[in-house]
Amino acid sequence: MMINKVEICGVNTSKLPVLKEKEMIRLLKLMRDTGDNEARETFIKSNLRLVLSVIQRFNNRGENVDDLFQVGCIGLIKAIDNFDLSQNVKFSTYAVPMIIGEIRRYLRDNNSIRVSRSLRDIAYKALQVRDRLIAENNKEPTVAEIAKELEIPREEVVFALDAIQDPVSLFEPIYNDGGDAIFVMDQISDSKNLDDSWLENIAIKEAMKKLNDREKLILTLRFFDGRTQMEVAEEIGISQAQVSRLEKTALKHMKKYV
């Protein structure tokens, strides 16, 4: 996604106006009191930079920047229509979560993994209840508390919230200490009996004899016992990053003998 392009949806982003807070309040009052369309248009244009700043958070999704910008503008307009001037809150503070929410809904609704409308509705209601309970109690509510508010079984809340989560690639890096990255797949254990695994053939076993004791232990725990790198790290008393490096070095060394 090209966030750095100048023109988005026909809007020259390099020439977007920026208004001071007093002028924004004046325009808001004018819009509320008289319904002045020119004031509304000026106010929208002066806040398009908010939309630009938000869509940069989603630049790793592979989505079309023009589509995200248009969706973000819908969120901006909703924020304008619902903003309460009597509250001691800056418009940008109120608008940014609205814009983010609109974009997230768009991404969820257009996800390649389709989720039923009823399930999405339960999930969105659960999120609204969660936000309300956090505001009321200043702490994260449990799933049981959310389910009680919605008067539905706890399992339905869990299922609905899981359904709207974005899928994660097995090759997405989750940690990097300056060396080799650790990926999601490195965190996944395999409890199946891999009878036909390539590690169990004679050639691999012979190649493992060329490794030192710690490398043998790591590969045995990882590929024969199906342990995660974190589990291996805890068992032998080193960091997960070290396990990752030793594992890759050992596999590379074994390739010479296979």
Characterization of the model:
The protein has a two-stranded antiparallel ribbon. A two-stranded antiparallel sheet has the order 3-4. It has 258 residues and is mainly α. A hairpin with a 2-residue loop joins strand 1 (7-8) and strand 2 (11-12). It is elongated, with a radius of gyration of 26 Å. It has twelve helices and four strands. Residues 1-5 and 192-200 have low confidence and may be disordered.
Strand order, sheet with most strands: 1-2
Poorly predicted regions = 1-5, 192-200
The topology string of helices and strands comes to: EEHHHHHHHHEEHHHH
The averaged pLDDT comes out at 76
Helix content range of the residues, please? 55-70%
Structural class: mainly alpha
Number of helices: 12
Give the termini distance in whole angstroms: 42 Å
Q: What characterizes the major β-sheet?
A: 2 strands, antiparallel
- Percent of residues in beta strands? under 5%
Q: How many extended strands?
A: 4
From the spread of the alpha carbons, the general shape counts as: elongated
Q: What is the C-alpha radius of gyration, as a whole number of Å?
A: 26 Å
Q: Topology, please?
A:
Layout lengths: L6 E2 L2 E2 L8 H14 L2 H10 L1 H8 L9 H18 L8 H19 L7 H21 L5 H8 L3 H10 L9 E3 L6 E2 L18 H7 L4 H12 L4 H8 L3 H15 L4
Antiparallel strand pairs: 1-2, 3-4
